[in-house]
Automatic annotation (TrEMBL):
UniProt keyword NAD present: no
All copies of domain Aldehyde dehydrogenase, residue ranges: 17-478
Family designation: Belongs to the aldehyde dehydrogenase family.
Species the sequence originates in: Thalassotalea eurytherma
Keywords: Oxidoreductase
Name of the molecule in the record: Methylmalonate-semialdehyde dehydrogenase (Acylating)
Classification via InterPro entries: Ald_DH/histidinol_DH, Ald_DH_C, Ald_DH_N, Aldehyde_DH_dom, MeMal-semiAld_DH
Record-linked Pfam families: Aldedh
């Protein structure tokens, strides 16, 4: 079988890298090498930025209407190629095909939000703010933007970045994860097919050296990152140090609170789906549940349903979860799960020795569930990023809120209840940026902004919604006064700063 080579995209062309370093891209279910991805050279990264810098001169002057029309064509192409893109995601990431198709759907939401650029990029105006004076703002593009994305959503995360940035009149260099790049490349190819001009959207691959080079480059104006806390903190600090506007959406430890008045079946099903779907490789997964009051009695049933979940390759449509992305990820997950046993948690469901018939080499970890979890255990303090669920218990909603607010992360949290009073108290008292009420994964639709908080986020502005436009534009304020052609002002010099 011929193994495909992942290209760079520079100045609108697919380019074979001249790098001496190429990494294997593996199918997580089989360990088969399905592609090779280059670590771009310093010269290639520079060429991508130079291409974007040059393209900005013309692209920034393209009308809002024409940029919107390209985004509309792009979303239609993505919709037409949903199955193809999902298959690429599954082949290299491992998530199930229905889940991959769902990811493409969420990416489409973000592209559709960029189609609203003619409304979102409007400025403000005060006519006659002072006598004969108008004051207005212009939301102007920044220049070259950079996006750095994690492996877990190879299409959705880029969709949070380059469509709004490009729609705002910026140009872009994307550095996707080297673990599953094929779907990202196909996504970008469709954007170019939709009419994005040469140089406006570029792709390079690589590791820390490429990331640092992009953060340091004089022509880069803004850097957006989504991924782990350690890397995100470095990217944010390094980019900021070099004068870039920066945002970093990072790690999480989300909690789902189940009240005794919740719809029992729906709450349990949504809990298990949010904890174990995508093999737990979501920053918005719910790896912790807090059972309140009488809901603690549901613990045996939750564990029994977890045991019934089906593990298999992502191509098997009836599988509930597929493999984790790599052998290294599996080893890390198992190490943390082992620590849970060693530190005294009760192992209710053990997925550590999961083997799928016919896929014995796959990176499979089955649903794993702990009770008697304490807040100082590694399984609670660390983001496992695998199919693991920690169960805590509380007497009251107030106690559950205290537990969540004591955790440093603030990406997302959910409450399942039939009480409007409890829901309102929860959403007002909880110190977390994204809240679900009877919704297990509270990522808002893309015309609202992604609003993770505290240790899960660095930077004031998040992706999507109106905030994404604020991040990818700079505001210019204009104060203007126009005089009649024959206006006579006399010889008095104006030394005050007031406008009257």
């Amino acid at each position: 079988m011929t193994i495909k080579e992942i290209p760079l995209i520079i100045n609108g062309e697919k380019v074979r890298s001249q790098s001496d370093v190429w990494l294997d891209v593996l199918n997580p279910a089989t360990q088969e090498v399905v592609a090779k991805v280059p670590v771009a050279t310093k010269e290639e990264v520079d060429a991508a930025v130079a291409s974007a810098h040059e393209a900005f001169k013309s692209w920034s002057k393209v009308s809002l209407t024409n940029r919107m029309r390209i985004m509309m064509k792009f979303q239609e192409l993505v919709r037409q190629h949903t199955v193809e893109i999902a298959e690429l995601i599954t082949q290299e990431h491992g998530k199930t095909l229905p889940d991959a198709e769902g990811e493409v759907g969420r990416a489409l939401e973000a592209v559709e939000n960029a189609c609203s650029i003619t409304r979102l990029q409007l400025g403000e105006m005060a006519n006659n703010a002072a006598t004969g004076v108008d004051v207005y703002t212009l939301n102007k593009p920044l220049g070259v933007g950079v996006g750095i994305t994690a492996f877990n959503f190879p299409v959705m995360l880029p969709a949070f970045m380059f469509p709004p940035a490009v729609a705002c009149g910026n140009t872009f260099v994307l550095k996707p994860s080297e673990q599953d790049p094929s779907a990202t490349i196909r996504f970008v190819e469709l954007a170019l097919e939709a009419g994005i001009p040469a140089g406006v959207l570029n792709v390079v691959h690589g590791g820390p050296d490429a990331v640092n080079q992009l953060c340091e480059h004089d022509d880069v104006k803004a850097v957006s990152f989504i991924g782990s806390t350690n890397v995100g903190t470095h990217v944010y600090n390094h980019a900021s140090k070099h004068g870039k506007r920066a945002q970093a959406m990072m790690g999480a430890k989300n909690h789902m609170v189940i009240m005794p008045d919740a719809n029992k079946d729906r709450a349990i099903n949504d809990l298990l789906g949010s904890a174990f779907g995508a093999a737990g490789q979501r920053c918005m997964a719910n790896p912790v549940t807090i059972l309140v009051g009488e809901a603690r009695n549901w613990l045996p049933e939750i564990a029994e349903r977890a045991k019934q979940m089906k593990v298999g390759p992502g191509t098997q449509r009836d599988a509930d979860l597929g493999p984790v992305v790599s052998p290294q990820a599996k080893a890390r997950i198992l190490s943390i799960l082992d620590s849970g046993v060693e530190q005294g948690a009760t192992l209710l469901v053990d997925g550590r020795n999961c083997i799928v018939e016919g896929y014995e080499k796959g990176n499979f970890v089955g649903p794993t569930m702990f009770s008697d979890v304490k807040p100082d255990m590694d399984i609670y303090t660390q983001e496992i990023f695998g199919p693991a669920l920690c169960v805590l218990e509380a007497e009251t909603l107030e106690e559950a809120i205290e537990i969540i607010n004591a955790n440093p992360n603030g990406n997302g949290t959910s409450l399942f209840t039939s009480s409007g009073w409890a829901a309102r108290k929860f959403e007002n008292d909880i110190d977390v940026g994204q809240i679900g009420i009877n919704v297990p994964i509270p990522v808002p639709v893309a015309y609202f902004s992604f609003t993770g908080s505290r240790a899960s986020k660095l930077g004031d502005l998040g992706p999507n919604g109106k905030q994404v436009i604020s991040f990818w534009t700079q505001t210019k304020s204009v104060t203007a006064r126009w005089f009649e052609p024959d206006h006579q002002d006399g010889s008095a010099v104006h030394t005050t700063i007031s406008l009257k």
